[in-house]
Structures are given as C-alpha cells and as structure tokens.
Amino acid sequence: MISNITYLNAKWGKKSVVNQRQALAQKAMHKSIDVRKQAGLDLKSPICIYGLCDKLKVKVRFVDISMEGIYLKGEEPLILLSALRPLTRRNFTCGHELGHHVFGHSSTADELIEDSDKPKAFNPEEFLVDCFAGFLLMPTLGVRKAFVSRGWDAASATPLQIFTIACSFGVGYKTLIDHMTYTLKMISRTKAASLLKSTPKSIRKEVLGYSSAEPLIIADVHWSMPTLDAEVGSLLLLPSTAQATNDIITIQDNHPQGCLFRANRPGIVRVFCRDSEWAVFVRVSRYQFVGLSKYRHLEEVEDE
C-alpha cells in the first residue's frame, strides 16, 4: 500500500508538471506574438517560416542528413534541416529551431523523431520551443478563422477538412490535430483519436480515388497566403478554374473538388482564376533540395 506521504508527493508532483507545462505554453504563445509583431506579421495569417527566418537574420540550410534539425548559435545564427524529412515536418522543425534562437538557447541538435506512442521524458526547453513553433505556425485566431471562413465546425470536422486546413498552414495532419487538442483545446481527445484513425495516405486515396505516394497539397478558394510551396512530384488540388502561366505545374485531372496539378520542375509560377480574384505564386523546389532555403525554388542553384 502506498503511504499517504508518497501519494501526496506523486499527486502534487504531477500537478507541478502540469502547471509548468501551462506556464511554458503561455510563455511560448506570448513570444510567438512578439516575433510576429517584430516581423510585421499579423496574428492570424499563415506564414512562410523561411521568409520569417530571413527577416530575423537567421540562415536556414537544408542538408542531406538523417535527423530533424540543428540550431547553431553565433554571430550569424544558422538552422540546419534534414532535406530527407517531409516538407511539412521541415516547416515545423524550422519553427522549433527558431524557438531555440528567440529564447536565447545554446546550440542544439534534434535527432530523428520517429512516430511513436511511447511517452518521452519531459524536457522543459524542448517543450517550450515545440509550443512556440505551434503558436507561430498555427496561431489561435488563425486556426479559428480557417474553420469559420469555410463554414466548418472544428468539433465535428472531417479528416479531409482537417487535412485541408493543415495544408493552408504548411503543417502535418497530426501536428494540427495535436495542436487543436492539447494547446488550443478546440477538440476533445476522443475526437482527436477518431481523426487519427485516418492518415494522410488514406486521405489522399479518398481525394484522388487511387493510392499515391506523392504528397498532396490542397489549396481551396480560402487559401490566404500569396505563395504556395511544393516540391517536384507533389500533387496540388487547386480551385476548379485555376490556370498556370507556365509548365512548372501542369494539369493532371479535372477533379470533382477542383483542378489537380502536378509540380514538374523547380521554379515559380503564377496561378490564378479568371472568374475570381484568387491567385497564388506556386514555388516549386527540387525534391529533397540541399542548400540555403532562399535558393530552394530557383532553377539554377547558387550557394555561398
């Protein structure tokens, strides 16, 4: 039998960790707001994390190494990201490493994180920058607006709706679900568990009507960023009347939910709809591009 003292220590120790997490999450949220304001960004729109790093004078380089990311502190701070990880994972990892920078942490290296349900040891510093990346990339007002503007209810959202909104913020399907569940408290854990029975692979099959290993990005008429980043080989489901001004992306199929394009080669292409004001610059990078982030979508890669 556990003694009363042992029980109380366990109880209050657990409560202390919960309070610590809440305090760190609050700190991360406030810092994300400060960083957005510093960069002249609003508090609700999706952002390009690499453009933000450029504004903050933090270089980002993609490397051919199996890991998540590295932050190197110094007079010229540098973030290294694995080019081998999915595009959405790289975006979040970049936000995570930028968190180390804005909080004044020492140089850090984050090893490859495999998808696992096994609990990990609590690390306050890593938890802080994870929360920072979440709030920075998926601000509370922005996530709520994403649902309201589409007429969707977060509490009853379908996997395809969650996937569409995840695309609009440049993050992964599970990343958005976790953020909405544990940080924003927009959906219950039961709802999250139900959503996680679907995967990006199964959602792609539902949308395309066939299995595909190629990444899919959905940009509907509510897409609010002026740019859309993709890699060669990616599939893009755009509004049904979308037209591209060159063959960097080409139409694959007139889909019931829009027009399906494929990214063919690196470069930038303007895509627009003649029947509306919808337009976006699609920036296509080489598959698993290695080099400085600012050169990722150029046909001829320069380097330093």
List the keywords.
304 residues; alpha+beta; Arc Repressor Mutant, subunit A; Immunoglobulin-like; five-stranded mixed beta sheet; four-stranded mixed beta sheet; 20% strand
Tell me what the structure shows.
By secondary structure, the protein is of the alpha+beta class. It folds into 2 domains: 4-137, Arc Repressor Mutant, subunit A (Orthogonal Bundle); 200-295, Immunoglobulin-like, CATH 2.60.40. Helix content is 40%, strand content 20%. The chain has 9 helices and 13 strands. A 5-stranded mixed β-sheet has the order 4-2-3-1-13, with helices on one face. The protein has a 4-stranded mixed β-sheet with strand order 5-7-10-9. A 4-stranded mixed β-sheet has the order 6-12-11-8, with no helix packed on it. The longest helix has 35 residues, at 4-38. It is globular and about 55 Å long. The protein starts with a helix and ends in a 12-residue tail after the last strand. The model is unreliable at 5-12 (pLDDT under 50).
Unreliable spans are 5-12
Structural class of the secondary elements? Answer: alpha+beta
Overall geometry: globular
**Can you give the helix content as a percent range?**
25-40%
Kindly report the CATH topology of the largest domain.
Arc Repressor Mutant, subunit A
Could you give a short account of the major beta sheet? 5 strands, mixed
User: Strands of the largest sheet, in order across it?
Assistant: 4-2-3-1-13
Order of helices and strands: HHEEEHEHHHHHHEEEEEEEEE
Mean pLDDT: 92
SS elements, strand count: 13
**Tally of alpha and pi helices:** 9
Distance between the termini: 65 Å
**How many domains in all?**
2
Sheet-strand content, in percent, reads 15-25%
Give the CATH level 1 class of the largest domain.
Answer: Mainly Alpha
- State Rg: 20 Å
Q: Any guess at the CATH architecture of the largest domain? A: Orthogonal Bundle
